[in-house]
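User: Hi! I'm working on a homework problem where we have to compare a predicted structure to a textbook description. Could you give me the structure for the chain below?
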Amino acid sequence: MIKLPPLRQDAPTPLWLQLKHALRDHITFQLTPGARIPSEAELCRHFGLSRMTVRQAITALVNEGLVGRQQGRGSFVLPTRLAIPPRRDAHFLDDGFEAIDGLAVQLVSLTIDKPPRWIRERLGLGDEEQAHKLRMTLAMGEDVLASRTIYIPEHVAPSLQEIELTDPVHHILEDRFGLVPATAEETMRLIKADQLRAAELRVAPDTPLILVERVVCLASGEPVEYARTYYQAERYRFEHKLVRPVPSDASENPLNERRHRVGDLQSVNGVGGDAFEAEPTDAGMQPAAKG
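Assistant: Happy to help. Predicted structure tokens:
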């Protein structure tokens, strides 16, 4: 028996949107992850709606990451997205890609390569300089939630290949090599999984991913780490706390910037918080060189 409130035929809100809200409440308060929601046919019969109206409501929930469709079986409640909140008591580079709370980090490979040109430019490397390249994944059991590729100039951490990498890389660079990070610039955007990322994350090609790129620098401005992290978009949400800077001496309270980019337009707002940069395409990237 379907336990959903009746829909109002005379309401200004479209029926598909009323059904979406009713299903959202049903999922939030009555169902658990993995539970099947009523089928399209069941909802059509119960509410006297057309198949198109019901499908529109369920598709909206799928697009929001609350529900997943399984061919031939129906639609099921997805696990709650993992939150990556700001952590004021941790290292400023800790970001959730860590072996905590049932999550396990696995080092997939560690090599020394000459990075692609666009990565060398980010790290300020010459044409023949090499970098350590680390590939790792973040998993919960058999479910791979995210993957990360890190480049570290060979000359700043020459013995990195000999170290057991059980801690976050930025901790190792600081504790073992004395490379104390002072700043980091991050960009975040939505992309579709290519064949390589799909295989790493065990998802279908074109699955939405959240790509976070980060360049870490010392106080001198020298870059010591470049990382690209791919999160499953339907499994993660990012939380940022924005704080108005306290008026005082500018040298004591540097202004954090939040950048918004749409095409060739960019605005910079003087508010506290983590930088976010969204770009509509990967223009300028060489597909074979990604990661």
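For your comparison, note the following. The mean pLDDT is 81. The CA atoms of residues 249 and 255 lie 11 Å apart. Good luck with the assignment!
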